[in-house]
Specification:
- This is MFS transporter.
- The protein is mainly α.
- The chain folds into three domains: about 190 residues, MFS general substrate transporter like domains (Growth Hormone, Chain: A, Up-down Bundle); about 55 residues; about 210 residues, Growth Hormone, Chain: A.
- It contains 19 helices and no strands.
- Helix 11 runs antiparallel to helix 16 and helix 13 crosses helix 14.
């Protein structure tokens, strides 16, 4: 049966809370890493695995988790994912050795993949009217912006006031409350059954290919992008993914029907998303590094300095993006947002090593509000072709592309910045000047990625008239709620 507007609002709150917990966890860890290294005796290389282990599990399992959600029920998958994540957070908070923390972080990634993969699938089946769906996506995008910034500030506060253990333990009450509310608020969907698409061979190919690919990306900075190890592992990963697509074309019950990629708007939005998020996520990381390494900000000051960007993105996504999408269409909104982001990156390519916050950084935090237009528009376009029986899979695919874009962006741009910095040091530049020069190169490449995303929007995506181009209503999922 159909849920009332109030019940759907409650369900949206539950989905947003779960997303907030996942996003918060991703940003809160980066602030506490120095304390974790000192306390547990991590090596410099080993410390990166507190992030890498999570990324590999999360990015590698999203597509499979999304499809399984369609088969066994998206509510079931959501609840199971939150339970795994909450339990793994307890293990991470109690970890006393590097190995235990890395294992717990891997389990957190598994739980995040299970829950996150079906969130958008649940959302688009709850909100079938285009205007309501646009508002719901705006709220969901606001959660992402808020979580990233809150994580940086909260990570500094918890680590300084208590200990790094609490950056994980704080997930426990949030996770338990989310599970309790989800049991009541989310509609029950039986799923189509495992016989409806239990493509074991396809699952093994795509999961191993994605995990190996993400592992190759996150380790490329250490081994070198043109090293035999990186090229060899990358080739194996591509071969596994190619095998997956061949399998999907021939399988009787494919894990991912290839018809999902035939939609011009859906496939174009995936490409634009990968390009745009590579730049946007790198902005968050590299600007934070610039503030700390060049300007001398501490962790808490950095989080507070980034707060206006989160407020700007959140305000636009929550109060403006849905109205503009209804009036002008998601494609036009996406292009406008990309122009603002290009302005932000262009500004950063010339930022000085002795920048003042009000004159040099605050304008960037305002321009980055374009993300509040870009993220909801991409989500709407990416989920536009979802049907009731594969909404979880489309959600998983959308999130998989997102994770690959973020991982690639950080790995490639960080490597380019480090290489440029070393070259400038060798030329006799001061440490601050060399670092600033490296970051300038990263911001220039980010601007180029946004230009490429803009071109995809112009040449591939289509949105003639908002009323005619609005997504077709998705039938409500059968519920027993």
């Amino acid at each position: 049966m159909n849920l009332s507007a109030r019940s759907r609002g409650t369900a949206l709150g539950v989905l947003s809370a779960a997303a907030l917990m996942t996003i918060l966890d991703g940003s809160i860890v980066t602030v506490a890493m120095p304390s974790i290294q000192r306390d547990l005796g991590f090596s410099a290389a080993g410390l990166s695995w507190t992030v890498n282990a999570y990324l590999i599990a999360f990015g590698g399992l999203l597509l499979l988790a999304g499809r399984l959600g369609d088969l066994i029920g998206r509510k079931t998958m959501f609840l199971a994912g939150n339970a795994v994540f909450t339990g793994a957070s307890v293990l991470a908070g109690a970890a006393t050795t590097p190995g235990l923390l890395i294992a717990a972080r891997f389990l957190q990634g598994v739980g995040s993949a299970m829950a996150s993969a079906v969130v958008l699938g649940i959302l688009v089946t709850l909100f079938t009217e285009p205007g309501e769906r646009a508002k719901a996506i705006g709220v969901f995008s606001f959660t992402g912006a808020a979580g990233a910034s809150i994580g940086q500030v909260l990570g500094g506060v918890l680590t300084d006031a208590l200990s790094w253990h609490w950056i994980f333990l704080i997930n426990v009450p949030i996770g338990l409350a989310t599970i309790a509310l989800a049991v009541v608020a989310l509609p029950r969907d039986a799923g189509t059954g495992l016989r409806g698409g239990a493509d074991v061979a396809g699952a093994l190919l795509v999961t191993s290919g994605l995990m190996l690919g993400i592992y190759t990306v996150v380790k490329a900075e250490d081994a070198g992008w043109l090293s035999g190890r990186t090229l060899g592992l990358g080739a194996v990963s591509l071969a596994l993914l190619a095998g997956f697509f061949v399998r999907q074309a021939k399988a009787a019950t494919p894990l991912m029907p290839l018809r999902l990629l035939r939609s011009r708007n859906a496939s174009g939005s995936y490409v634009a998303q990968m390009l745009a998020l590579s730049a946007m996520f790198s902005f968050q990381i590299i600007v934070a590094l610039y503030m700390q390494k060049v300007l001398g900000y501490d962790a808490l000051e950095t989080g507070l300095a980034m707060l206006p960007a989160a407020v700007a993105i959140g305000t636009i996504s929550l109060f403006v993006s849905a109205r503009l999408s209804r009036r002008f269409g998601e494609r036009a909104v996406l292009l406008a947002g990309l122009v603002l982001l290009m302005g932000a990156m262009g500004w950063l390519t010339r930022i000085p090593q002795d920048a003042g916050y009000a004159a040099d950084l605050l304008p960037v935090m305002v321009l980055i509000s374009g993300g509040g237009l870009v993220l909801p528009a991409l989500t709407g376009l990416g989920m536009s072709g979802a049907r009731p029986d594969d909404a979880g899979l489309v959600s998983g695919l959308f999130n998989t592309v997102q994770q690959i874009g973020m991982a690639l962006g950080v790995a490639v741009l960080s490597t380019l910045a480090a290489s440029r910095t070393e070259h400038l040091r060798a030329d006799g530049r001061s440490e601050a000047a060399a670092l600033t020069g490296g970051y300038h190169l990263a911001f220039t490449v980010s601007a180029g990625l946004l230009v490429a995303a803009f071109l995809v929007g112009v040449l591939v995506l289509r949105s003639p008239k908002p009323a005619a181009d609005a997504p077709a209503p998705i039938e409500s999922v059968p519920t027993n709620a």
